[in-house]
Specification:
Elements lengths: L4 E7 L10 H15 L6 E8 L1 H12 L7 E5 L15 E9 H10 L4 H16 L8 H17 L14
Helix pairs in contact: 1-4, 1-5, 3-4, 4-5
């Protein structure tokens, strides 16, 4: 069981009203991923809500992709090695940036709730913070998708049939 998990959530956008309960949902997602991965150290994660314009700027700045995206992950660790907060002894896993505006658009596109979309993006990003990647496709992408669905199902957010794997 993950010892102590601190999730720092900030809302830096006012395009979409963040529904009540989303902060708790994000914390539950982070806990569930760490539990699934048997991550037993205390951990700290930062989650920031932005709009499409802000995430587009970040995507261009850090990935040289000049368009908005739904979520960006900024892992602070590599190969299971993490910086540690000297005051709390917590592993600093990294930052998750979610475009709530894009999440709203995608929840409508995929015909599921905003809660489910934000939960999916959080779980997806948490796996990135722990070193998983799907960019090259193949087995690693499949393994990542299975873990995402396992966690979302545990949280009672099983996907509906209209969700598909984005093949960009």
């Amino acid at each position: 069981m993950a010892e102590k998990v601190k999730v720092i959530i900030s809302n830096d956008q006012n395009t979409v009203k963040v529904p009540s309960g989303v902060r708790l949902l994000i914390r539950r997602c982070c806990h569930a991923v760490l539990l699934l991965e048997s991550f037993s150290s205390p951990a700290e994660i930062s989650v920031r809500f932005v709009d499409n314009e802000q995430i587009k700027e970040l995507n261009a700045q850090y990935r040289n992709i000049d368009k908005e995206t739904d979520v960006l992950s900024f892992p602070l660790g590599e190969n299971g090695e993490y910086d540690v907060n000297p005051e709390t002894n917590a592993c600093l896993l990294g930052d998750i940036v979610i475009s709530v505006q894009k999440a709203m658009e995608q929840s409508q596109e995929y015909n599921h709730s905003l809660d489910r979309e934000i939960a999916f993006l959080t779980v997806h990003s948490m796996l990135h913070l722990l070193g998983y990647d799907h960019v090259n496709g193949g087995l690693e992408a499949v393994r990542m998708r299975e873990k995402e669905e396992t966690v979302l199902t545990q949280l009672g957010l099983k996907r509906n049939g209209s969700y598909y794997l984005d093949e960009e």
